Each structure stands twice: as C-alpha cells, then as structure tokens.
Description:
Number of helices: 7
CATH architecture of the largest domain: 4-Layer Sandwich
Strand order of the largest sheet: 4-5-6-9-11-10
Structural class: alpha/beta
Oligomer: single chain
Radius of gyration: 22 Å
Shape: globular
Distance between the termini: 19 Å
CATH superfamily of the largest domain: Metallo-dependent phosphatases
Helix content: 25-40%
Amino acid sequence: MGRFYKNTFWPLIKERNITKIIHLGDLVDRRKFVNYIISNYLRRNFIMPANELGIDMHILVGNHDCPFKNTNSINSVHELYTNLESPGKFQIYSEPTEAKIFDYNVLMLPWINPENTDNSLNLINNTKAEIAMGHLELNGFEVYKGSLADHGMESKIFSKFDMVLSGHYHHKSQKGNIHYLGAPYEMTWSDYDDPRGFHILDLETRELEFIPNPNKLFYKIFYDDLIQDEDLLNIPFERYKGTYCKVIIVNKTRPATFDRFIDSIEKADVADLQVVEDHLNIDKQTDDQIISEAEDTKTILHKFIDQLNLNEKDDVKKYVDKLYSEALELN
C-alpha cells in the first residue's frame, strides 16, 4: 500500500494537477477498532499528503468505518479527522447529501442503514443531480471476483442517473450506468488476480479513466522442474518482498533445486510463504482447478458442499456465502 501511494497515486495526482479527491467509503477496513500504527500510517501516507497539496477531500462513510450496522453517527473518519487545520478542505459525508463538486451537483450516498434509509430514498427520487456517488450494496454485482451478491437494493432505483459510482464491493465491474470502482489494492486472498487501482473522472465528459495499481500483495508460484529446470532459480525473486506467496508444486523431481528455490523466496523477505503439494498433477495453466490451500475459502466451502448428499446445494452455497460476507465485515 505504501508503494502504491508513494510511487503511483501521489505522483499522478501531482502530474495531472488533480485538486479534488473523492473517497467512496471504507477508509479503514476494520469496523470495531483502528490501532495507533495503522492510524499513523494512514495519516502519513494519505491524509497529510492531501492536506499539504491543498486537496479538496470528500470522504463518504462506509460500513467498515462504522462499528454499528444501524447508524453512521459513530464512525472512524469523524473521530480521526474532524479537527484538521483546514476543515474546509476535508468534507465527511455520514448522511445522504447533495454536494457541489466544481459546478456539478452530485448526490453523495454513504452507507445506507435503517436510520437513514428513508432520507436516502427520498433524495434518490427527488434530486436533480445527474451523478450519484455512494457506498452502495446492490443486488446482482460481484462482491469479490466470482462472488455474486444475492441481496441488497435493486439497481433500477438508480436508473435516472447518468452515472453511478460506488465503493463497497472490492471487485471492479460495470452494468449499465452503475460502476463499482473496486478496491485500490489487494487486501485478502479473495483479491488475488483481480485488477486494482483508482479512477480519474472528468465530470464534464463523464469519462472515467482507470489507473491500475502495479503492486501485488498475493502471488501463486507454480513449481515444475520437469519443464523449467534451472530457469526456476533465475526468476526475479525480489518482486516477492513483503508479499504473501503460495508455491504450488506441479512436479518436484529435483529436491536440491526445490530447496534452493524455496530458499531464494525466503531470502526475498516475503511476509508469508506456503507450499502446496499438488497431488493431482494439474497443469499449471489451469489455476482455477487447483484445490486445497491454493484456493480461497469460499471455493473450498463450495467444493465441500458439492460432496454432500443434499438436494438444495445452490441454496446452501448462497447461505454460506452470506455468512462468509458477514464474517468479513465483523473483522
């Protein structure tokens, strides 16, 4: 995350003379608490650089910013940053609001909960704004890559808008006028091999430009010494510094080469290293077929359900997916 802000995000903000940043919610990830180290890192890498550049910052309150599910009244963004020296440059939206961004009216929709649902729907129905920005939970969009939400508001509610931009779901996707912008960086194995980054919006032309984040946090490395042989030891191991790696063994016929390979990864100072024995001898190109630890939690659960003698397996999978999503929100 630090490399993303230092080498990609802030240099481009300066290069393009960007003066306004809109954060669509979940400034922090954990709903219940934020420790001092994370607070300091967030301030140094995101908040203070924006303040020093005179950025007009707009931040929507997301569900992970709030300890309670039924209200936005207590949230980490207000508690941490309400008293900045330049409050006019730092606007927080904990309630639905019509905002002025340059000369354009934009409907700001923070996390919709039982306390603000009526007010949110009233503004959605009656606003003259042509663009809405929110932290929305809409049915039928991918939360993570391959994980479709089967609950939430219906997207047709927002059909009146020219463009709807939303945070909340980590996977970047689009259906019609609705754009889920996705997370700016990988945070869990569910984010593996899914593009991350941020967007530059031209409010006049409605052009939305995606700027990819070149930094990856999770890697799957396929080890096959029948094909790669000594070339295995010539890969740029330094790319794995500080990352989470899973070495998936396709063929291991040279123990000495394998030990040197693993030693090279460890010397790169990875954050975590797991070795997955691939007893099925699956070809390295069919990554999505690999089972055991190489797969994410939901895939493992789905495959377990498939093995059970049940009539309504799809319904069970949906229920498990819902429990899994709720568990992630409680972190």
